[in-house]
Design a protein that fits this description.
Helices cover 91% and strands 0% of the residues. It contains 2 helices and no strands.
Length: 137
């Protein structure tokens, strides 16, 4: 019984170590994802400001008197820039930020499972140690 208990407590201790290593790696990955999310949000904000400016420029041009309204190269470039920014913002939101948020949610869920498992192993290890102490003492 003593040998089996020693074996089990050693096995539990190794499992706790493995879980802690995985937990540390998961924490590192979560930090990287949070940094990536912050970068994407900054880029998104920058593109949103550019979109706002482009809309203002188009609005200023539209405020001209009817006789001064022209569909010139500047107007065409502004419209093309507007479409490009709208597409870019959409892709950044859908493919960038949303994917990182999903990955963060999954990472945090996994981290919580690891923490619960580690706590369970600590309790089992504590019981094994108490039993060993009582059997040897």
């Amino acid at each position: 019984v003593m040998d089996a208990l020693k074996f089990q407590s050693t096995k539990t201790k190794h499992l706790m170590s493995d879980i802690q290593s995985t937990l540390n790696a998961t924490g590192d990955n979560i930090k990287k994802l949070e940094q990536e999310k912050a970068k994407l949000e900054l880029l998104l904000k920058s593109k949103t400001f550019m979109l706002d400016d482009t809309n203002k420029w188009l609005a200023y041009r539209a405020e001209r008197p009817a006789r001064e309204l022209v569909d010139d190269a500047v107007q065409q470039r502004l419209i093309a820039l507007l479409k490009q920014l709208q597409l870019s913002i959409s892709k950044l939101t859908i493919e960038g930020v949303n994917e990182v948020v999903k990955a963060l949610e999954a990472g945090n869920k996994y981290k919580n499972l690891l923490l619960a498992d580690l706590e369970d192993k600590k309790q089992h290890y504590g019981l094994d140690v108490k039993c060993l102490e009582e059997l040897s003492g």
